[in-house]
Amino acid sequence: MIQMICAGWIFGISFLGKNIENYLQLSSISFYLLIALLIFLFVVHLRIKAIVLRLLNAVFAFFIACIIGLNYSNDQLMERLKYRVQQSNEVEIIVAVNSINQLKPETIQQQLVVLNQFEKTVLWNSSLKIEQHEPLKIGQYYRLQGKVSPIHSYATAGVFDIEQWYIQQNWMGNFQIKHVELISEDEVKALGYASYIKKNNSFTAKFKRWVELQRLDIRYFIQKQPIQHKGLTLALLTGDESFLNKQIEEQFQRFGMSHLLAISGPHVLIFACMMCWLMHRIIRKYCPKIYLKIPKQYLLIFPFLSCVFLYCAYVGFEIPALRTLLVTLLASVWIL
Q1: Helices (H), the chain
Q2: Are 244 and 296 within one domain?
Q3: Are residues 255 and 158 in the same domain?
């Protein structure tokens, strides 16, 4: 039964953001017919086989979970879209910078946590001209002035859907920075955002900022190395395309290999397997008797999970890496 409920939940969520009026109508009719059938069977006390009753219960549970998952996912989507920028405006915003930036040929792309535009904080993607301002620093607060604009996708079929990409990243608008002013935590508290300061100073938030600073150090480390294709090396290892040559990026797109530049499961698992293989060779050479007390798969499972977690942090906890972490956790629990 639990499997049918989970399957129905996933099936319902899979229709997120699609035109579902016809599906809802069909599922509602089927759902009511199923309820009527169960009531009829209960009233007339028909003698049916137990396997048929279990099948009807499973279908009933599937429909219930499907409808709940569908409504939940669409409610969450509407809640997110409620804070999306609808028109262009000149605004002054108070922001926190908690993530690494993305370097472009003429601009710096930076994710901003905007504090003063809605009743809750929202994320905007910003662009800053390199020749006019210094990059915004992680862990600092700023008062920014500039122009915010909504994101629209192209009407041409088959092109990259930038609007969908922004929604996936939870970016509610695009902000063009014109003036930058660094402000302190005390000034932000005086503006009425003490609750966010407290939340942003929690252990989890500090750990995420520390990870972003380490990623920034890795970027600078690779930049200083005497190697060719520094941008390609950085992109393949961490997913950071800051130094990637535009011509190389276009070649990857032309040959359909852009997915190699996005960190995914194979990146994480290859690194974890390499580290576990190295650890296994060391144990086998210096203390193989430990395997008589602890089986190899049990002994190496915790270093394996640690490597997966480390690489997920190394790439900034991207969604594909987090998905891999979740699957490996579930598989490890199953093995244990």
Answers
A1: 2-13, 21-44, 50-81, 162-168, 185-190, 194-200, 203-224, 230-238, 246-254, 265-286, 290-293, 296-314, 319-335
A2: no
A3: no
